[in-house]
Amino acid sequence: MYLLAWQCLMSEQGKKLWSLLKHFGSARVAWEAGVKELARVPGLRPKDPEKIVHGRAKLDPAREAARLRHAGMDFICYNQPGYPENLLQIFDPPPVIFIKGSIKPADNLAIAVIGSRKPSPYGLLVAEKLARDLAAVGVTVVSGMARGIDTAGHKGALSGGGRTIAVLGSGLDVIYPRENKRLMDKITAGGAVITEYPLGTPPEHWHFPARNRIISGLSLGTVVTEAAERSGALITADFALDQGRDVMAVPGNIVNPLSRGPHKLIKQGARLIEGAADIIEELGLERLFPAQEVKAGGKVKMSEEEKTLYNLLSLEPVSLDELIDRTGFPAQKVLAALAYLEIKGFTRQMPGKLYIRAD
Question: How, if at all, do strands 164-167 and 74-77 pair?
């Protein structure tokens, strides 16, 4: 309760909050400290202790918890089971995150898919496809629920039947952009929407760089798809590097200004990404494929669903709908099998959700 209250009071002052917690050793002891005791905390400015005491008087920890639960939301503290393991490993994780939906252990296997708010059709197509293919093989897709690439990433993960996590730069009850309300509902049904900002916090522009450290912090690696040379996506990539996480980038049209960000990252050593298989290889995630899938001699083995789909493919493109009809498999199972086949190098997806053999 006291950690929750501190997060509500100092959500935009993470470093000072960590200093308080470290100095007093307990959120409750810190909450009950007077002005003179607070003045001894390293990192606080001379006027901070009085501001803290004044703000503290207006907050009731139990009431804040009740507000969240009444709204169908919850919170997780850094010292509780369920706090994201990847996020806990960064330099300055939020002491408390507010959450709608659920965080699961499987979300430790996560990749951030980020980029421009005003992408080209190519950028949208690539981001959605990468996210769908990653989700289909059990990788959680993390992004920021902004317009453009973020939205495409979340939608791709959902269409791949997988999990996705959105990180907001506002309170959970302040949906931004407004048109993503339905998307937010879908994300919470099959993943989570999280933030370090308490209920009612507006999406101020300075919240988003801080939000970006959480996106990269939740993820084993960050993939940038279409971004300007100076953009929030490249800020997220910088955070990822500082956190010791991998940075990858999707190449684009050399005359498109939004290709400059990814190309800059590639020149600096980021892995060039052409598909989900490159991401899996870069992060050493081949363990997604059980050992029994590899026969003696190094040949990759297919599941029964994969064999059925592969036998229906040729160099003549076949639509997703036709494959679903001809196999009789559920759409989610077909998408997952096609994703595995593509990662193993047996199929290729063409524009318009058409599939061909790749070998």
Answer: unpaired
Shared domain check, 42 and 133: no
**pLDDT, tens digit, for every residue of 132-151?**
999 988 899 999 999 999 99
Cα 270 from Cα 154, distance rounded (Å): 23
Total domains present in the chain: 3
Residue 99's beta-bridge partner residues? 74, 194
- The terminus-to-terminus CA distance of the chain in angstroms comes to 58
Whether 73 is in a domain gets the answer no
CATH, residue 353: 1.10.10.10
45-62 residue pLDDT tens: 999 999 999 999 999 989
Give mean pLDDT, residues 326-347: 82
Give the sign of the dihedral formed by CA 143, CA 149, CA 153, CA 159. Answer: positive
Q: Which helix (H) or strand (E) holds 334?
A: helix 331-343
Asked if residue 345 belongs to a domain, the reply is yes
* Nearest Cα residue to 208 out of 82, 101, 114, 86: 114
- Of 155, 114, 110, 112, the closest CA to residue 137 belongs to 110
276 in the same domain as 225:
yes
Strand pairing class (318-319; 354-357)? antiparallel
What is the C-alpha separation between 223 and 246, in angstroms, rounded?
9
Q: DSSP secondary-structure letter at 177?
A: S
Looking at 286, 303, 322, the residue that finishes a domain is: 286
User: Looking at 259, 286, 313, which one is the last position of a domain?
Assistant: 286
Q: How far apart are CA 240 and CA 212, in angstroms?
A: 9
Q: Phi and psi at residue 2, in whole multiples of 5°?
A: -75, -35
- Contact in structure between 314 and 350 (CB atoms under 8 Å): no
State whether 26 and 131 are in the same domain: no
Distance separating alpha carbons of residues 221 and 283, to the nearest angstrom: 7
Give yes or no: residues 118 and 155 share one domain. yes
Global confidence as pTM: 0.82
In a shared domain, residues 221 and 343: no
Residue 172 belongs to a domain: yes
- pLDDT band for 297, please (50, 70, 90 cuts): very low
Between residues 112 and 292, the one the model is more confident about:
112
